[in-house]
Specification:
This protein is mainly alpha-helical and 241 residues long. The protein has two domains: 106 residues, no CATH class; 109 residues, no CATH class. Helix 3 packs across helix 4 and helix 5 packs antiparallel against helix 6. The model has no long low-confidence stretch (mean pLDDT 89). GO terms for molecular function: 3'-5' exonuclease activity.
């Protein structure tokens, strides 16, 4: 990332630029990723090609790239051995910048594959079932993105986000069909700040309600829960007032 590798990979992947392998001896190592260093295994093979150290030591070197105090020692070793193996100084400096930058973020090929599969699956779901996909994302809250960002993305995709309603909101985010046939996402009861888990469970269990008195008798809400519902303007409750 420090070396802008994602952009370089995408440009090469889509044919906007020709892959750059830095040196013909690196092409077998970097061909599958269009000349961009992505995986730990590639870093190990580059270390081995540059220094002849063997893959065992190369594995140790790539793991130590994330330790700033070790970088000068590794750099000195790489520059000295690469010169001995016939690489020109300018190329060594260029390759070292790539390797040193890789220490800030990198992963093994197996790790990349484990991410790639759910990434493609998620992209397909988001494209063909955006309401269902985002409702699931909001419910399970993986924590990588704040919920307001997910809600903004839903609106950007034309998926309405419906307010909390004691008649229809569940313990999870739900997909509801609107009068025009489109789909919206209904906010979930756990988003009602100030309510207890037991109160939310009773709301979900006793839906629907016929009146405010019916709601009170079956849910037994505390005053603060009524106040929380009033703050969010829950239409399924206050339409009886």
């Amino acid at each position: 990332m420090q070396n802008n590798m994602p952009l370089k990979y995408l440009q090469a992947r889509h044919g906007e630029v020709a892959p750059g392998y830095l040196h013909p001896r690196f092409e077998p190592i970097l061909r599958e990723t269009r000349g961009v260093v992505i995986f730990h295994e590639q870093v190990m093979r580059l270390f081995d090609e540059l220094t002849g150290c063997g893959l065992g030591k190369a594995d140790v070197l790539q793991r130590h790239l994330g330790r700033p105090r070790d970088l000068p020692r590794i750099e000195e070793f790489v520059r000295r051995r690469a010169l001995e193996r016939g690489f020109p100084p300018a190329l060594i400096a260029q390759v070292w910048r790539v390797l040193a930058g890789f220490g800030s973020f990198g992963f093994a090929k197996a790790h990349g594959a484990a991410f790639a599969l759910p990434t493609y699956q998620s992209a397909w779901l988001k494209t063909h079932y955006p309401a269902e996909f985002l409702a699931g994302l909001l419910t399970h809250d993986p924590g990588m993105w704040p919920k307001d960002l997910i809600v903004a993305e839903a609106r950007n995709l034309g998926v309405p986000v419906l307010g909390l309603d004691v008649q229809t909101s569940g313990l999870e985010y739900r997909v509801e069909e609107l009068v025009d046939g489109s789909l919206g996402i209904r906010l979930a009861l756990p988003e009602l700040v100030g309510s207890s888990e037991a109160e939310r469970a009773r709301i979900a269990r006793h839906q629907p309600f016929t009146s405010l008195q019916d709601f009170r008798n079956r849910v037994h809400p505390r005053k603060r829960t009524f106040e929380a519902l009033a703050r969010v303007g829950a239409p399924g409750l206050f339409r009886w007032l």
